[in-house]
Amino acid sequence: MIFGVNIIVEVNMAYQFDEIKGKTVIITGSGQGIGRGIAEMFADQGANLVISDINQETAQKAADEIAKKGVETIAVVCDVSKYDQVENLMAKAIEKWGKIDIVINNAGITMDTLFIRMKPEKFQKVLDVNLTGTFNGCSAAVKYMRKARSGCIVNISSIAAHGNVGQANYSASKAGVEGLTKTLGKELAPMGIRVNAIAPGFIKTAMTDAIPEEIRGNIVKSIPLGRPGETSDIANTILFLASDLASYITAQVVNVNGGVSGL
Q1: Are 209 and 263 in contact (CB under 8 A)?
Q2: Residue 170 catalytic?
Q3: Which residues, in sequence order, are CB contacts of 12 under 8 Å at separation 6+?
Q4: Average pLDDT over residues 56-70
């Protein structure tokens, strides 16, 4: 299982990456949940942030609260499955700061059920948001990044990309994200654009906390590090991939799963 969540998280950073300060960072699905935590982390590094969510009120509230950290933020409503809305998202960043440095394609949904019960429309909806939405984010951003001959894109995959019961649609969408990431990483490298993905495993969230204790315990026992991941584990990995420390890393999928093997 892979677990998204509608919670607000705080990420405490022990390290400072001076090169992130003043960068323009766009994060889809960052009005709440893990996306919000990623945004908080980049704010702690002094980045200018575009907070994007499908809900205007959620996006604006997050942008206003994050701005209290002393960084510039804007809120943009965006359904990532709609290319024109993603184009508008990028255009707003250009209008405000004149550049796009880092794009994190985080927005995603789940509509879980066993395959024999899965309706075609639910299969398609998850692909539209998770896979096509990632393509849209990459495509719209690259139009600007290629002119600057620089840029960093981080896509969010999942351990479920390798298959998971009850998630045929989600698993297919995330496997597609990984293939897209590796292809774009190779194609865009000559333009100075790096494209990577991270694949989270079992992450501690309000949703995973709701899993029956016995089942949750068995899942944790299967993790070599012996604990579920934290939202900060995801945010920290993204920060690394967006930093100069990862300047020689592209077309890669980084598994953040505590050592789970057999993928």
Answers
A1: no
A2: yes
A3: 44, 232
A4: 97
Supply the pTM of this predicted model. 0.91
Q: What is the pLDDT of residues 198-218, one digit of tens each?
A: 999 888 876 677 778 888 888
Residue pair 71/64 in contact by the 8 Å Cβ criterion: no
Check residue 257 and report its DSSP letter: S
Instruction: Name all domains of the chain by residue range, CATH numbers in brackets.
Output: 19-252 (3.40.50.720)
Pick the catalytic residue: 15, 83, 144, 170? Answer: 170
User: What does the alpha-carbon distance between residue 25 and residue 103 come to, in Å, rounded to a whole number?
Assistant: 6
Buried b (16+ CB within 10 A) or exposed e, 205-241: bebbeeeeeeebeebbeebeeeebbebbbbbbbbbbb
144 by DSSP, 3-state: which? helix
Q: Is the dihedral of CA 255, 43, 20, 83 positive or negative?
A: positive
- Average pLDDT of span 115-141: 98
136, two tokens? 């849209």
- Give residue-wise pLDDT tens across range 158-201: 999 999 899 999 999 999 999 999 999 999 999 999 999 999 98
Q: Which residues 6+ apart lie within 8 Å of 20 measured at CB?
A: 42, 45, 46, 47, 239, 242, 243
Helix (H) or strand (E) segment spanning residue 53: strand 48-53
- Nearest alpha-carbon partner for 143 in 90, 208, 197: 90
Round the average pLDDT of the chain to a whole number and report it.
Answer: 92
